[in-house]
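Dear Dr. H.,

I hope your travels went smoothly. While you were away I took the liberty of generating a structure for the chain from your last submission, since the lab meeting agenda had it listed for discussion. I wanted you to have the full record in hand beforehand rather than looking at slides cold. The sequence, exactly as received, is reproduced here:
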Amino acid sequence: MFDLDGDAANSAQVVSSPSRFPDSVTTCLTIPSHLINSQGTEKDRQTSYNAAFLTDIDSNNSYSVPWLLNAVRGKPLLVSLVGLPGRGKTIIAHKLHRFLLWNKIRCEVFHLSYYRRQMAPDFPEHVINQPLKSNEEPLRAECFKMLFEDIDLFFSEGLKHVACMNDTGIAGGSSTSTLKEFGGKTSVGSEDMPFLQQVRGNVAIFDFANSRKSYRRELVEFCHSRDYDLCFLESITDDLNLIQLYIAGIEQSNPDYLNMSREAAVVKFENHFRDYADSYEQLDEQSENDLAFLKIFDGGVRFRVHNMNGYMQSKMVYYLMSLHFARQPIYITRHGEALNNTLGIVGGDSELTARGVKYADAFADFINNLPEMKQFQESGSCCDGPGLQVWASVLKRAQQTAARLKSPVLCWNALRELDAGVFDGKTYDFIEAKFPQEAANRRFDKFKYRYPDGESYDDLVTRLEPVIMELERTRSTIVIVCHQAVMRCLMAYLLNRSFDELPYLDVPLHHLFKITPTAYGYEAEDINLNVPSNEYTNSRERRKKSSVLGKPANFL
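The corresponding predicted structure, in token form, is as follows:
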């Protein structure tokens, strides 16, 4: 049990029951009472949480960080993008959003252009940056007002209109009364507007040019009045190839450019760019010395860090300094069929079957003929840069699958299969027959279920963070040979799938998946090498499979 016992004058303690930890371990987390959200009710402070993790206090199967951890992690944080159009701000926002969610930090992206389109779809976009007429200033002010109200709601109650109010063509909701005042229409009726889980937000990412010091000061005043932390991320790009990449993403995904010819889109963007460039003021270490910010030059070639402090900001800097925007693909496959796959045995370290060996040969023939492999063979180097790298699990079946590749194999212990603990080497049928309650617990919440003395998918997500960081950093084409649970986690991260869906992603044996970066994420392609397999299938879970190629399934 976790008991939250508030001391009105000094502190609150979270004490874990000895039944959750070895007898020799005493766990007591003391939190200053002034850090606990003042809006928490007396019922909040007296509630006991019957769960394995603090995140379990959300009874609606959400894996976001609960409000109690806001006190541990610090004040709510507003992250504001800064930069000219076509400089990758939205790409950075979405990558950061995905990374923070992966780390179970409640985070959302707020795009100012969403509010502008909803309130006045016929107004030119640049009016938000530089009002051209006196009657357009109220529009800009109203957009900011609505944005601030939604950020307040997100930080105080975790409420967020469906869709993240983004710039990638996803519908969302907004304040109906304000929209009608400006002649706009809501895309979702207010009475039908669904919300995400009501877990208080940790980080709000504000995607807007914020190209003038006066606008940044407005954000400073807003955050100061609410006691929010604030930092800025400025993207400065002079690399013409990178700018072309960013602009292509805008034309493909930004609703303002949909259904337009290439020529018309270019003209519109150039006009839009000039409107911002005329009044653009970079973050200045002299006149804005009190601000916390990270400057990113040319997509990560160079960085400048200023006043970025604390756990959350440091974690973000660590991640963003590993990013790149190269378009090399990632190839991911499970090992070839192993003996334990055919017998329905959990875990183990068995060798490949004859069919598994045949798949390893077909896999090697495909990879060895990739242009990147030929480039590697010509250069004779597997260091970071153009070319190809092969990563594989340390287990025997993965090593045998990668054995014929004409490239050195980097062995990752982190890529080993999920640890089944005391059930390692046992069959699913044995577990169902001898330990029906364990089997039922696993079916009830497959993501959080931890095998006795083993791991859960939740644990595996944490274990894979170094792999994720290296994937983001490496500019080579990557080939990964791993296992079912590991592959599900990696695919869920790259394709932005939820933790609810993750354990049910369909990643069959003898299929090679090519993951290609796009403007705002990744696309998956299934490469079937036409080698059959005979993998045991747990019939109780067959109906819950989710394809990695289609749209995310609804598991709520």
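Two observations you may find useful: Confidence is low (pLDDT under 50) at residues 1-73, 126-134, 162-197. The chain is about 35% helix and 15% strand.

With kind regards,
E. W.
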